[in-house]
Write a structure and sequence with these properties.
mainly alpha; DNA polymerase, domain 1; 3-stranded antiparallel β-sheet; 8% strand
């Protein structure tokens, strides 16, 4: 009978050996040898015992690569997909240490991975974050007794150069709302969605009875959040809903909207209307306008998908939804 995927293997070595069967774990790539057995049956017993307790590791010998792979299996799966991908990319800048015993790696060596990558503050931050995750995991397994990741430094975050849309620019968009895809810009300005969240929004996520949308990605607080449909864009949402062929609110030729296509459309809109903004600046504008209108901070955080110390559990009661509606309607322009 075939073993389950990643279960491991028992194979016979050539030659005349006292223990000719080698037992290997089920990881992809360079499989770790668990041990040797005199018979195939003994090998499968050894493999079964290993799979029942794969945490039985030699803490003094486990390498950075081995710790990272175990962390991917046991801890990374609890993180968001975007976060996982960022940390996996960060690992590529640490591979010069991958065969080193983790408890022998010093802070200055971790720091060198950050300094030598010669990339942006964002990538440097991901490398530091990866070591923080690995240190925490290594502490759980009693591999280390001190977290060197707390000593690491990265390039400072540059000052934001985001420019919010002015009232005059918002009015210009309304005056040209019949121009192709301008309705999407207005949608972003009155919802605070990221463009990826707008593209992922399905028609089944729209509730016209309650006048709300359910969407959002990236963070735990941002996933599946409730965003009221502002009265000024209600007709935009209804029109997109009625003409959808793909099941997505925003589409192109009957299929889900692709980011590459949308960014090209965005550039054309900005050029035609003599504006200079990025799609993400709609999100900054939305929050700024809510704040200027005196919206409740907790409601702003809920709508934006930001974690708030005052929010508590994200349970959307009828009262909560009404509060979100009242606050989003404070933006009158």
């Amino acid at each position: 009978m075939k073993n389950p995927n990643r279960y491991g293997t028992v194979s016979k070595l050539s030659g005349n050996r006292r223990r000719p069967f080698v037992v290997r774990e089920g990881k992809t790539g360079n499989q770790k040898i668990i041990g040797y057995a005199a018979t195939r049956e003994e090998g499968f017993i050894m493999l079964a015992n290993y799979n029942s307790n794969p945490w039985n590791i030699e803490t003094g010998k486990i390498t950075l690569q081995e710790l990272y792979e175990l962390w991917l299996q046991k801890r990374a799966v609890k993180l968001g997909i975007s976060n996982q991908n960022s940390l996996k990319s960060a690992y590529q800048h640490c591979t010069n240490l991958k065969q080193r015993s983790y408890n022998q790696i010093k802070a200055y060596e971790m720091q060198d991975c950050i300094d030598s990558c010669k990339l942006s503050y964002s990538t440097q931050g991901h490398i530091k974050s990866l070591f923080t995750h690995l240190d925490k995991f290594a502490m759980e397994l009693d591999i280390i007794s001190k977290c060197y990741s707390s000593l690491l430094t990265t390039a400072p975050t540059p000052e934001s150069n985001k420019q919010i849309f002015t009232d005059k620019e918002v009015n210009r968009l309304w005056q040209n709302q019949n121009m192709e895809n301008v309705d999407s810009v207005l949608f972003l300005l009155y919802t605070g969605f990221r463009i990826s969240e707008m593209a992922d929004l399905k028609t089944c996520d729209i509730d016209f009875e309650l006048q709300i949308m359910k969407g959002g990605t990236k963070t735990a607080a941002g996933k599946n959040r409730i965003v009221p449909i502002h009265s000024k864009i209600r007709h935009i949402v209804q029109n997109r809903f009625l003409h959808s062929q793909s099941g997505y609110l925003f589409e192109y030729k009957g299929k889900k909207l692709k980011m590459s296509y949308y960014r090209a459309c965005w550039a054309d809109i900005m050029k035609t209307l003599d504006m200079n903004h990025t799609p993400h600046e709609c999100r900054h504008t939305f929050r700024s306008r809510l704040d200027s209108a005196g919206a409740n901070k907790v409601c702003i955080d809920r709508i934006m998908g930001h974690k708030s110390a005052d929010t508590g559990e994200r349970i959307y009661t009828h009262k909560t939804i009404e509060e979100l509606k009242q606050n989003i309607e404070l933006v009158t322009n």
